[in-house]
Amino acid sequence: MQITALLPEHWPSVKTIYEQGIATGQATFQTESPAWEEWDRSHLIHSRLVAIADGAVIGWAALTPVSGRCVYAGVAEVSVYIGPDHRGKKVGERLLGALIGSSEKNNIWTLQAGIFPENMASLKIHANCGFRTVGIREKIGQMNGRWRDTVLLERRSLVVAV
């Protein structure tokens, strides 16, 4: 497996993997994948990664800013998605580790993630990569008419803004 920069030509595979995550009901509140242009605008230009095996994209990771205010310029939210045939094989952990390294090279001092409490695999991946639970955001949003909680996790860099 190789981890490399996510490029526009990877978008069809990235979109498919994102839609597979949406279909689980355990990955995001989103109900559909955006067009490339919207996705591109909403994610930081740096720290966009894909995992490739046998010439195919099998997972991706990227960062979104948490705020437009300059005081939060070093704080970003993590997204990590793995294709269903490659889950449970440490792809997510490797992608998240690479994303952390890239974020620190780009002066990000805090990473955060909001994960459904039922998504034990994602919680474990984040814990293995140094994230800590900050708290539970109770009934933070509705999905299919049902209120859902998220676990708020964060990882403070040990090298940026210490």
Mean pLDDT: 96
Q: What is the molecular shape? A: globular
Radius of gyration: 15 Å
Proportion in helices? 25-40%
Distance between the termini: 33 Å
Strand content: 25-35%
Oligomer: single chain
Widest sheet: strand order? 1-2-3-4-5-7-6
Order of helices and strands: EHHEEEHEHEE
What does the largest sheet look like? 7 strands, mixed
Number of strands: 7
How many helical stretches?
A: 4
Structural class: alpha+beta
Low-confidence stretches: none
Question: What would you say about this model in short?
Answer:
With 162 residues, this protein is of the alpha+beta class.
List keywords for this structure.
162 residues, alpha+beta, 4 helices, 35% strand
Question: Could you walk me through the main structural features you see in this protein, from its secondary elements to its overall organization?
Answer:
By secondary structure, this protein is α+β, with helices and mostly antiparallel strands. The protein has helices at residues 11-24, 36-42, 91-105, 120-128, and strands at residues 2-5, 49-53, 56-65, 75-82, 110-115, 132-143, 146-156. A hairpin with a 2-residue loop joins strand 6 and strand 7 (146-156).
